[in-house]
Amino acid sequence: MISLDDMMVFVKVVEKQSFTQAAESLGLGKARVSQIVTKLESNLGTRLLHRTTRSISLTDAGARYYEKCLLVKDIAHEANEEVQNSEQLPSGTLRISTPSTALINLMSEFVAMHPQIKLDIIESDSYSNLIESRCDIALRASSTLEDSSLYAVKLGYFTDMICATPEYLSRFRKVESVEDLAKMDWISHHIVHGEKQLILTNSHGEQTRLPHAPRVQVRTSASVKGFVLNHLGFAIVPSFMVYKELVTGELVRVLPTEHDLKIPIYAVYQEKALMPARVRALLDFLKNKQGEFS
């Protein structure tokens, strides 16, 4: 029988990268810590650590086991935390993966409602693995969700649109067709749009593909927006990222009939036997806010 204590000793060894330092941290002898890890490997029937006189490193099996041990550690901590909190108030740290700027307003409202909750937000325009990144919830914009092991709540839709500044557009006599875009500078998001082809989708789902090399290529939505606001070109951007600038007139929408793509946005999470109160509170909050992304 493998005990939770033995698993946590293994976690500490990995964290400290040293049997000696792990032993000191746990208040145990180095020999005892080594014995626990060896027994753990024997019970599991596989080696978890590569050992040399100067260093230790995880085997492939050890890396997978370490990730699972961290999940067990989190669940145990959350169970103790919730039982000890007689009022069952949501508390602790929420780790969230989200595209740049997408959740700022909603999460500000959520935090104001739950003063015991802290946020650790990973802003990324690429999809992160919830288990590997140890995220509680990820915000994902996609027409399809590939990982069937995850659960999802549809929050609404946003509009993918072409935008530019009035100053930049004033350099051109007219912008009336897709072909006119070929004469303009494209600020491209490498992760989202690739390199040499502009793909536009109208409200009927019909696509137009235009060979076009970007003038500036970046890897975050914030950078795309920054270059566009500096009058360097046009970009395809999500509506939630430029809502304020469209209202103030800093940006204007270009060829709305040629590109009017509606994309679902989801809150994605792992179903847990012991879902922390803070995660449940956020999911309930987001469900009540369905449609505010539209």
Automatic annotation (TrEMBL):
UniProt protein name: LysR family transcriptional regulator
GO molecular function: DNA-binding transcription factor activity; sequence-specific DNA binding
InterPro entries, alphabetized: LysR-type_TF_proteobact-type, LysR_HTH_N, LysR_subst-bd, WH-like_DNA-bd_sf, WH_DNA-bd_sf
Domain of life, source organism: Bacteria
Similarity section: Belongs to the LysR transcriptional regulatory family.
Residues in HTH lysR-type domain copies: 2-59
UniProt record, GO biological process: DNA-templated transcription
Organism: Vibrio astriarenae
Transmembrane segments: none
Keywords: DNA-binding, Transcription, Transcription regulation
Keyword Transcription regulation tagged: yes
